[in-house]
């Protein structure tokens, strides 16, 4: 393996994403792990692309084989090919993820059989954590302590600033 891609919107990056990236970094070492932020112009994000890139770069600054890129208006498998990646890494948290990711794996294989998909299943303590879940917890009394458990410090500080 020379390079693997782990893609998402990362709005914001959570402890679940962090587990996936760290696990990829360890499993694929010394191969490069490209954390690819997909830009969807029809989707309104809480954080800008620049902020999301910074969050990931700061969180993984001690990981020499992790880098961050963005892509737009491309199928993930085509983006992977364009950067020379041989693998796409996807997380499976539950049966819904499995059904969706299984279908995407087959479509990606139809588009480019030279790029393989690797599935990782995060541990129970982070499996249910998503960006949507984190954003949905902001607001009620005591949210600060709860949200802090699920995001890296750089994201937590940005959330405090945004919702102060």
Describe it for me?
The chain has helices at residues 15-28, 49-59, 76-82, 95-111, 124-127, 131-136, 143-148, 153-162, and strands at residues 3-8, 32-39, 66-72, 87-91, 116-120. Helix content is 46%, strand content 19%. It is globular and about 50 Å long. A five-stranded parallel β-sheet has the order 3-2-1-4-5, sandwiched between helices. It contains eight helices and five strands; from the N terminus they run E-H-E-H-E-H-E-H-E-H-H-H-H. Strand 1, helix 1 and strand 2 form a beta-alpha-beta unit. The protein is of the alpha/beta class. It has a single domain (3-162), classed as HUPs (Rossmann fold), CATH 3.40.50.620. The mean pLDDT is 95.
Brief overview:
With 164 residues, the chain is an alpha/beta fold. It has a single domain (3-162), classed as HUPs (Rossmann fold). Helices cover 46% and strands 19% of the residues.
Based on the model shown, name its key terms.
Rossmann fold; 8 helices; alpha/beta; five-stranded parallel sheet; 164 residues; 46% helix
């Amino acid at each position: 393996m020379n390079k693997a891609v782990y893609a998402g919107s990362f709005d914001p990056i959570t402890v679940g994403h962090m587990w996936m990236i760290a696990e990829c970094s360890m499993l694929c070492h010394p191969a490069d792990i490209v954390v690819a932020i997909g830009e969807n112009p029809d989707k309104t994000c809480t954080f800008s692309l620049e902020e999301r890139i910074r969050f990931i770069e700061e969180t993984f600054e001690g990981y020499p084989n992790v880098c961050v890129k963005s892509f737009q208006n491309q199928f993930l498998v085509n983006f992977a090919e364009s950067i020379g990646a041989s693998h796409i890494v996807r997380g499976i948290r539950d049966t819904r993820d499995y059904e969706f990711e299984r279908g995407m794996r087959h479509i990606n294989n139809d588009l480019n059989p030279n790029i393989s998909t690797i599935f990782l299943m995060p541990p129970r303590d982070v499996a249910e954590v998503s960006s949507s879940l984190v954003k949905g917890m902001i607001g009620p009394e005591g949210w600060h302590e709860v949200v802090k458990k699920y995001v890296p410090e750089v994201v937590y500080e940005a959330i405090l600033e945004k919702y102060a």
